[in-house]
Automatic annotation (TrEMBL):
Listed name of the protein: PHB depolymerase family esterase
Keyword vocabulary terms for this entry: Signal
Listed InterPro entries: AB_hydrolase_fold, Plant_Biomass_Hydrol_Est, PLipase/COase/thioEstase
Domain Phospholipase/carboxylesterase/thioesterase residue range list: 85-196
């Protein structure tokens, strides 16, 4: 099945997005939501398909998860379009019979900042997070990290990233592990900022995405 170019009409403007359904029945596959980086903002979905995660998905012979990639306007950040993103996730999940407890949020660069912020603020929505070449936003403090201690995370970073220092990612990973998180951390040797294809093309990550367990939602307090 090929990747589809679609659009969604929001209250503010029409936004383009990519979608590819899994090659298994809807509820047997998670939904992986990808947040692109700064240079891919705009209205041309060809920019997303030219490289990185969307390119890998588009060229895959088969896909064990549903894939969704919204494109936000130039100069925007992901928290600016949170409501539209979440609404699209919900509508796509309903249309394709996706298990809402198995939604993974992932981002590259600017999209990783969005993943940190949206994933920690709404941890109950996501079964896992994947961070690639991500600068850790200032808003990700100890309290935000604490909300992610039970969320499966995988952080990828280039050893020689000159745009988002490796040490920042290492500090976040260390802080999560100190809280009991089993966060995975992969440093790409000699890798610069643009390691998206190395990260998302990793067979181990692809298996991890396909087999993500349902989100651990907080239990109601006993009466």
């Amino acid at each position: 099945m090929s990747i589809e170019r679609r659009s969604v009409n929001t209250a503010r403007q029409i936004l383009p997005y990519l979608f590819r359904a899994a090659d298994v029945s809807g509820r047997d596959a998670p939904l992986v939501v990808f947040l692109h980086g700064a240079k891919d903002r705009g209205t041309d979905l060809g920019q997303l398909l030219a490289w990185g995660f969307p390119k890998i998905v588009a060229e895959a012979d088969s896909l064990p998860y549903h894939f969704l990639a919204l494109q936000i306007p130039a100069e925007a950040t992901w928290p600016d379009w949170r409501d539209e993103l979440f609404s699209l996730i919900d509508s796509v999940s309903a249309k394709h019979n996706v298990d809402s407890s198995r939604v993974v949020l992932s981002g590259f660069s600017l999209g990783s900042a969005g993943t940190w912020l949206l994933g920690s603020a709404h941890a109950e929505r996501f079964a896992g997070l994947v961070i690639v070449s991500g600068r850790v936003p200032e808003g990700i403090d100890d309290a935000r990290l604490d909300k992610l201690r039970h969320t499966p995370l995988w952080v990828f970073h280039g050893e020689r990233d000159d745009k988002a220092p490796l040490i920042d990612a290492q500090h976040a990973v260390n802080a999560l592990r100190a809280k009991g998180s089993s966060v995975l951390f992969t440093v790409v040797p000699e890798g610069d900022h643009f390691i998206a294809e190395a990260a998302y093309g990793d067979p181990a990550l692809q298996r991890w995405l396909a087999n993500i367990p349902a989100v651990r939602r907080p239990q109601a307090a006993a009466a």
